[in-house]
């Protein structure tokens, strides 16, 4: 019984030792075999691998492209116009041995902390060498390439390859926004006032031209009306003269009737003339005896 128990224990130890000596590397990973903290072997190909149980340990690192969001930082371009910049980087661990030696047991967290300082320094250096208008223009793509190249050279000491650096946000600091908005409002209000003044000037010209055209049209119409009125008066006078020539007595009678109509046009008209005057000639009655 004791012998069987001993055999089972030995078999269990052997199985445990065999299992603990086998490790698997995923295709998305790279692995280091460490012995007392020293790198003994690098496993970059996916599959099964072996190590010495208890003495050796396996540390795995992600072989994919990783992302890092940097903290906001203020930069001062050449024109001393401060900007708040947010950036993010994409990187991968290119040399696991160098990476392990650089960051030790801190791993990815320690590496990202150091990588963030590298990217921030490169961002300040590159953006500080140009004006703010360049940063806010389409030339920003070229600036991001320069930041990536500067950070890439520094990150090689960590065993890290910087794949890309992008600027997510480039804004003015909060304390400067109100002043900037006030200046923009003043500029827009000035432009609006200029447009209103130009519109009023154009309107005055249109009104003056319209008034002049109106005066010319009215004057021309009045001139033509006077001509027509004069011609009509002349024609009327001609008719009256012809009628007078045909029957002077009837014409005198008609003129007297017209004078009566004009004189007695009002409701309470009063007329003071001598009854035997010439005005009432046709009011006189003549009595004839048959």
Q: In this structure, how is the largest beta sheet organized?
A: 4 strands, antiparallel
Helicity range:
40-55%
Identify low-pLDDT runs. none
Number of strands: 9
What's the CATH superfamily of the domain at 66-172, by name? Band 7 domain
Approximate strand percentage: 15-25%
Written as H for each helix and E for each strand, in order along the chain, the element string is HEEEEEEEEHHHHEHH
Q: Which architecture of the domain at 66-172 does the CATH hierarchy give at level 2?
A: 2-Layer Sandwich
CATH-defined topology of the domain at 66-172:
Tetrahydropterin Synthase, Chain A
Our measurement of the CA-to-CA distance between the termini, rounded to an integer number of angstroms, reads: 191 Å
Radius of gyration: 56 Å
- Give the C-level CATH assignment of the domain at 66-172: Alpha Beta
> What form results from the Cα inertia axes?
rod-shaped
Estimated structural class: alpha+beta
Average pLDDT value? Answer: 81
Count helical runs. 7
């Amino acid at each position: 019984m004791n012998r069987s128990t001993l055999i089972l224990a030995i078999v269990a130890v052997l199985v445990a030792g065999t299992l603990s000596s086998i490790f698997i590397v995923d295709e998305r990973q790279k692995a280091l075999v460490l012995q007392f903290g020293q790198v003994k072997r690098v496993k970059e190909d996916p599959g099964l691998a072996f190590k010495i149980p208890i003495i050796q340990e396996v540390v795995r690192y992600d072989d994919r492209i990783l992302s890092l969001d940097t903290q906001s930082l203020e930069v001062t371009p050449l024109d001393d116009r401060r900007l708040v910049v947010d950036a993010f980087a994409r990187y991968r661990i290119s040399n696991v041995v160098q990476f392990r030696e650089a960051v030790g047991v801190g791993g990815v967290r320690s590496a990202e902390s150091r990588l963030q300082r590298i990217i921030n320094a490169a961002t300040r250096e590159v953006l500080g060498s140009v004006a703010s208008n360049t940063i806010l223009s389409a030339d920003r793509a070229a600036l991001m390439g320069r930041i990536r190249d500067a950070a890439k050279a520094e990150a090689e000491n960590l065993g890290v390859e910087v794949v890309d650096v992008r600027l997510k946000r480039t804004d003015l600091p909060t304390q400067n926004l109100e002043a900037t908005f006030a200046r923009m409002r003043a500029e827009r209000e000035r432009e609006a006032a200029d447009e209103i003044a130009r519109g009023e000037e154009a309107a005055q010209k249109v009104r003056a031209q319209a008034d002049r055209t109106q005066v010319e049209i009215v004057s021309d119409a009045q001139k033509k009306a006077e001509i027509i009125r004069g011609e009509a008066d002349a024609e009327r006078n001609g008719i009256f003269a012809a009628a007078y020539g045909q029957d002077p007595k009837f014409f005198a009678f008609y003129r007297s009737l017209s004078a009566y109509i004009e004189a007695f046009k009002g409701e309470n008209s009063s007329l003071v003339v001598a009854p035997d005057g010439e005005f009432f000639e046709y009011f006189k009655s003549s009595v004839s005896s048959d």
